Amino acid sequence: MKVKPHIKSLIVFTWILLVPVGTWLIYKAYPPNLSGQWLDIFAFLLLTCVVATMPIVINEMFIFLIQWVALATFLHFGLFVEIIFAQIAVVVLLLKMRILRKGELYRLPVNLNMFFFVSVTSGMVYYLLGGQAGPNFEYDTKSLWLAILYAVVSYSMNQIIVSFNLYFIYKSKVSYFGKDFIVETITTFITFPIGLVLYILYNQVGILAVLFVGIPFVSLSMIFRLYYSSEKINEYLQKAAEIGHQMAERLKVDDVVDLLIQKLSEMLPVDYAYIFEVTKNDELQLVRGIESGLPNDLPSVKKNQGISGMVWGEQKTFLYTAKKEWSHYANGHIPDDAESILGVPIVRSKKVIGVLLLASKRKRAFEKFQLMIIDILCSHFAVAIENAKHYELTKMQSEHCSLTKLYNYRYFENLLTEEFEKLMRFERRQLSLIILDIDHFKAVNDTYGHQSGNEILFELASRLSKLVGDRGTVARYGGEEFVVLLPDTPKEEAYQIAEQIRQMISNWPFTIQQSLEFEKTQQKVMITASIGVATAPEDAEDALALIRHADRALYVGAKRAGRNRVAEYSSC
């Protein structure tokens, strides 16, 4: 969530203007009586700091269960001490959660302002209704109800300010009243009575009350944190399984790579993610990355070179929590503003086939349990990539001519059907087809041999691909016949392209390396081709008719007319 610079400045200015002055005014209006209580104050402050370091984290939201300690502190020491403790607790919490980093320091005054307003509002309501606080205060039923009111006002103000921050400062569009709100509400009202118990017990046994109440609460907090951590791990494992299934369903290598990058950036605090592949030259080559952290012309990485090379060479995961830990290993392949680094080998059949490198601008961004999740994802990824490569290879072989590397008749037939359907849906204006046949190709084979004929077919296929380019699709129709499908191309333009093809064939000789002659020397062979052109919808109403009419133009208009010429279909 990005906050505009002027909003950040306003937040800091608000804290400077209100909090120090407000705290001093509270001190003057309700001066605390702290004589002889410094040890007790230290004990409550220590308890406050310990509780502040143990927030409950749910869906990346911190539930700050400090209110019960604040209640006991307020009732015994007064509003001024409670304000000071709350400000200290905020600093301790943010340091614990490691979110005070460059560019987000404004979070400190945001939270300091929030807790100051909560403390002042709830405390003033308590005082205005006749409530008293301090070590000499005698507790009664009225004070109990006022203490409950204090807790309700404190919680309500906290929710109002949090909601205000989300909508007006962070510009969040996520609904505030969700599962997190319910959990926080329940846990807050469960813990508030603990504050009353702490206060009452403190009046009876003194400073030991801090231990009697604090230790069980801290223990329960630790148990709850462990439980939530296990739930979080299970959630990550479930996501990893779902992502694994999704990758297995992808049939293209690019789709598998894109899916992994996308899901990792959603699951983890990733600012940069890169996938390297081990090439045939025994080097790591960048395959895909997010953000602009690495240049497109990143050089290949050798084994044990840099962090990715170390991951490859030692075949194990490397986790760095700060830049100072990995900076001496870096070789210019990691963005300068990165802090946390996670490098994981991608292993298939006990062999490293690639490396996944994740980086974050935050320090200590990745947790240790996430290593297991990433390792599982990399295992799924390795299998999915291998399957996708096999599929693409099989698909390519089934759709291409093994000799010329052009598309074959099967692919051309499907493509022609698809293009004609687009024509019928008015997604195409016109569809032109060129069919060419090499003249007297049998004589070429008889003179120079079939191997030389194959060389001519291969070179012709290369010439056709270069000449047509992205204007259409070239395919081998069969034998010495080739076709060119030209979407959105009128007959006049198709005829011109066909004429360019004819001249390209007849004017430039073909080179053959193998011939029936004894001496294996290069030879130049001149050939010609006859070409037919037809265009839909003016010449044909279906795909088969378009082929038939282009073929008729080839044999009737070009072959019978003397060969080495272009003929267009005419119904007349």
What report would you give on this structure?
With 572 residues, this protein is α+β, with helices and mostly antiparallel strands. It has 3 domains: 5-232, no CATH class; 250-388, 2-Layer Sandwich (Beta-Lactamase), CATH 3.30.450.40; 409-568, 2-Layer Sandwich (Alpha-Beta Plaits). It has helices at residues 5-29, 38-52, 67-77, 79-97, 107-128, 141-169, 179-205, 208-249, 253-267, 306-314, 323-326, 369-399, 409-424, 441-448, 450-468, 491-507, 543-559; strands spanning 56-58, 61-63, 272-278, 284-290, 318-320, 340-348, 351-360, 431-438, 473-478, 481-487, 510-512, 523-525, 529-536, 566-568. A 5-stranded antiparallel beta sheet has the order 4-3-7-6-5, with helices on both faces. A hairpin with a 5-residue loop joins β3 (272-278) and β4 (284-290). α3 (67-77) packs parallel to α7 (179-205). The model has no long low-confidence stretch (mean pLDDT 84).
- Number of discrete domains: 3
| Average pLDDT rating | 84
Q: Sum up the overall morphology in one term.
A: elongated
* Terminal-residue CA separation: 70 Å
The helix-and-strand class reads alpha+beta
Q: What percentage of amino acids are in beta strands?
A: 5-15%
| Rg calc | 38 Å
- The number of E-state strands comes to 14
List the strand order in the largest sheet.
Answer: 4-3-7-6-5
Counting DSSP H or I runs of 4 or more residues, the number of helices is 17
Uncertain stretches: none
Q: Portion of residues in helices?
A: 55-70%
Main β sheet profile: 5 strands, antiparallel
